[in-house]
Write a structure and sequence with these properties.
Shape: elongated
Strand order of the largest sheet: 1-3-6-9-11-13-15-26
CATH class of the largest domain: Mainly Beta
Structural class: mainly beta
Length: about 300
């Protein structure tokens, strides 16, 4: 437990997951400062405040490393105020009132025993689980690379980016390859829709996906109608129609391998695999998920404590 952390001033602080308790008022006191929550999408923050909570004008709460707004719970004994043009993250449970000053915004849920007051403010609902998160899983891919290239991933995607070679505007003359693997336990059987996309030289670079040691899909650029050509910097679009992978409940291992096969003719090349477990891929936040009120309106968000 963290007691009276940072002397109750959270301006420009980074908080790891855990239980935080303050015996007095807590503030993000500095204008335009940042409070960062850093952790994975399964980590939890409990923030117990015995007094009031105030976020200064233009201050911001930021999520890093996969942290999720609905895993940050604020329990505040007195009034809560979000300053002009500030932004907050989390589920706020206030014993009295919550006030969004002009232009303030929040991502999460805001429940008060008296009222929630908004003035030209925006409240966004956290997105539903998507990708692997819809089955309660957090991907933990283990990556290796050789000769160059870089992996990135999210809850619904894994991608290998290839460095440009010396002929096509870059400096890398190596054969580039990368491997990724993830062992996980499914709580229930799942139907996983896979799609693969990318950009690569015709008939060379390729990506392979295996499940429990069996090849599920392999994609390689093809020269169709002379749109792109082997041995040039004119790259081909890579695509594979969606296919379904059926996995039973229990432990499984997915493995991905990507390679350029040689050190020449790589220009803005990449391979990407998207995973949809029935609730869709993970989208960017949409303005359509936001609630905005103006002119000092009052409303009660959620139910009374």
């Amino acid at each position: 437990m963290h007691l009276n952390s940072h002397a109750a001033n959270l301006s420009d602080k980074t908080l790891p997951p855990g239980l935080y308790k303050w015996t007095s008022t807590v503030n993000i006191a500095t204008v335009s400062s940042t409070l960062t929550f850093e952790g994975t999408d399964s980590d939890v923050w409990i923030m117990q405040v015995a007094g009031t909570f105030t976020a200064a004008s233009a201050s911001r709460m930021v999520l890093k490393g996969g942290a999720k707004a609905d895993n940050i719970v604020w329990v505040i004994a007195e009034a809560t105020t979000f300053g002009t043009n500030s932004h907050v993250e989390g589920v706020f449970l206030a014993q009295t009132n919550i006030v969004f000053q002009t232009g303030a915004s929040g991502n999460g849920a805001f429940l008060a025993q008296t009222a929630v007051t908004l003035d030209a403010a925006t409240i966004a609902k956290p997105p539903p689980p998507c990708g692997w998160g819809s089955s309660g899983l957090t991907p933990d891919w283990q990556f290796t690379t050789s000769g160059g290239g870089a992996w990135t991933s999210s809850s619904s995607m894994i991608r290998f980016d290839i460095e440009n070679d010396a002929i096509c505007g870059g400096t890398n003359t190596n054969t580039q390859s990368g491997s990724a693997s993830w062992t996980f336990t499914l709580p229930a059987a799942a139907e996983i829709t896979l799609s693969m996309t990318g950009v690569a030289e015709a008939h060379y670079e390729q990506m392979t996906l295996s499940s429990d040691g069996n090849v599920v899909a392999m994609v390689q650029a093809q020269d169709i109608n002379n749109v792109c050509q082997v041995g040039t910097c004119d790259m081909c679009q890579v695509s594979m129609p969606s296919t379904t992978l059926s996995l039973a409940a229990g432990e499984h291992t997915l493995a991905v391998y990507a390679t350029t096969k040689d050190g020449a003719f790589h220009k803005s090349c990449f391979f990407e695999i998207d995973f949809d477990l029935g609730l869709g891929l993970c989208p960017e936040p949409s303005p359509g998920n936001a609630l905005t009120k103006r002119g000092g309106e009052e409303g009660r968000v959620g139910r009374t404590l």
